[in-house]
Design goal:
This protein is α+β, with helices and mostly antiparallel strands and 414 residues long. Helices cover 46% and strands 21% of the residues. It has helices spanning 2-26, 45-51, 55-58, 63-66, 83-90, 136-170, 180-210, 223-239, 257-262, 276-293, 339-343, 350-360, 386-402, 410-413, and strands spanning 30-35, 40-43, 68-70, 94-102, 108-118, 127-134, 219-222, 244-249, 252-254, 271-274, 298-305, 309-316, 364-369, 375-382. It has a 6-stranded antiparallel β-sheet, sandwiched between helices. A 6-stranded mixed β-sheet has the order 9-8-11-12-14-13. It has a two-stranded antiparallel sheet with strand order 7-10.
Length: 414
């Protein structure tokens, strides 16, 4: 009996190995184990199929020869951007949903890619596990949906704009005579048409933001003077509702232009690299939201930063946002569901578009809020040194002189 138990122990070990192989081979996601020399030690059938290799041929081969990561144009990615090189250099987990893989039969696939280090006491990884998923079909479906939304939104804008124009003419006393009762109906129709036009415009912009077609012409911006001008332009909308507007740099608050002109306020120069029109779109959206949802108090546009980051903020004294809604606020079509939002129109796309724009410039946007105490939206952008700003400006001026004038972008034509 005892002898059988000992044999059973060996059988259990074999069964354990068998179970691991069954599970490893049956996984739908591709799994690859590589050593510190970036050589493949284990590869499951799913990974072999995705890469177009046979398991015995791929085992013992350099992972970069089997997992050929390329750009969306099919060109090999740069060595310093290769996730395998990064992992064994930095030892950090890596995840990317936007990579492309060139299989052995030269078929380009869209993949979801994760890479995790295996560390056994050493500071540098001794091995790593790569998980690959073929998401080509899902990406194609997403692209079809985005194309449909983009086309439909573009085509619908023209008739909606025409309807809005005719309604505006009907409401013009110099063009037509309308009794007060009919005027009320026309004003409601005009307002609804404007909302519909805004929805189509936001749908079109969000579709372009998702598939990388959003037009952007970045340049060097001194964000202090830029924000001060934007605040001045937006001030009227808030003051019309009885709200105060404050522009704050660090701990210095510039309450109005006259005070700013009579008092010397030392402000650091914060340079960023972004499209001023796109950045204005983001600030305006955040400011308009603050005005819409704030009944009394003030709106504050703030600016601060350090050697690496420039931080802009838009704060209000409104009702605040529930904690459960904060993680979802920048998702497409998401709106906080309460009595206030039901009475105030919106598409649920504004913050989603803001996030996409800020990410264009390697920035980050987030919100902090407390019920009854207002909300603050923060934007972090990489800060340029004075020398970097000067070099970029000179490069831009040289390019403007030497390069031929390009035709207007299609988005500007429409």
């Amino acid at each position: 009996m005892f002898g059988k138990r000992k044999n059973t122990g060996t059988a259990n070990w074999q069964d354990e190995q068998t179970r691991f192989k069954v599970i490893f081979d049956s996984l739908e996601d591709g799994v690859i184990l590589i050593d510190a020399e970036q050589t493949i030690q284990l590869i499951n059938p799913a990974a072999a199929t995705i890469c177009g290799w046979k398991i015995d041929e791929a085992t013992g081969v350099s992972v970069t020869a089997v997992v050929k990561l390329v750009t969306n144009k099919g060109e090999p990615i740069a060595a310093d951007a290769n996730p395998f090189e990064k992992l064994f250099k930095d030892g950090q987990n890596l995840h990317d949903e936007q990579l492309f893989l060139l299989s052995r039969d030269n078929k380009q696939l869209s993949i979801s890619f994760s890479l995790s280090p295996l560390v056994s006491g050493e500071q540098t990884p001794s091995a790593a596990v790569a998980i690959i998923r073929d998401v080509s079909q899902r990406r194609a479906q997403e692209q079809q949906r985005a194309d449909f939304i983009s086309t439909a939104s573009h085509e619908m804008r023209t008739p909606v704009a025409a309807i809005e124009g005719y309604l505006a003419l009907a409401l013009n006393d110099k063009v037509s005579t309308v009794d007060e009762r009919a005027r009320g109906y026309l004003e409601k129709a005009h307002s609804s048409t404007q909302h519909l036009g805004k929805l189509f415009q936001d749908l079109l912009t969000s579709a372009k933001a998702e598939d990388g077609r959003l037009v952007s012409h970045p340049g060097v911006i001194e964000i202090g003077s830029y924000l001060e001008q934007v605040t001045s332009d937006l001030r009227f909308a808030a003051e019309k509702k009885g709200l105060a507007v404050d522009f704050s740099v660090g701990n210095n608050s510039i309450v109005n232009k006259r005070k700013a002109m009579t008092e010397k306020i030392v402000k650091p120069l914060y340079y960023v690299y972004a499209d001023p029109d796109r950045l204005r779109e983001v600030i305006t959206n955040l400011f308009d939201n603050a005005v819409k949802y704030t009944d009394e108090g003030k709106i504050t546009i703030g600016l601060t930063g350090d050697n690496q980051v420039v931080q802009c903020s838009v704060s209000d004294t409104g009702p605040g946002i529930p904690a459960d809604d904060l993680p979802h606020l920048f998702q497409k079509f998401y709106r906080v569901d309460n009595s206030t939002t039901r009475t105030i129109g919106g598409t649920g796309l504004g913050l989603f578009i803001c996030k996409k724009i800020i990410e264009l410039y390697n920035g980050r946007i987030w919100v902090e809020s407390e019920l009854g105490k207002g909300s603050s939206f923060y934007i972090n952008l990489p800060r340029l040194t004075n020398q970097q700003a000067t070099d970029l400006q000179q490069r831009s001026e040289t390019a403007t002189v030497l390069q031929p004038v390009e035709p207007l972008d299609q988005e500007l034509k429409t």
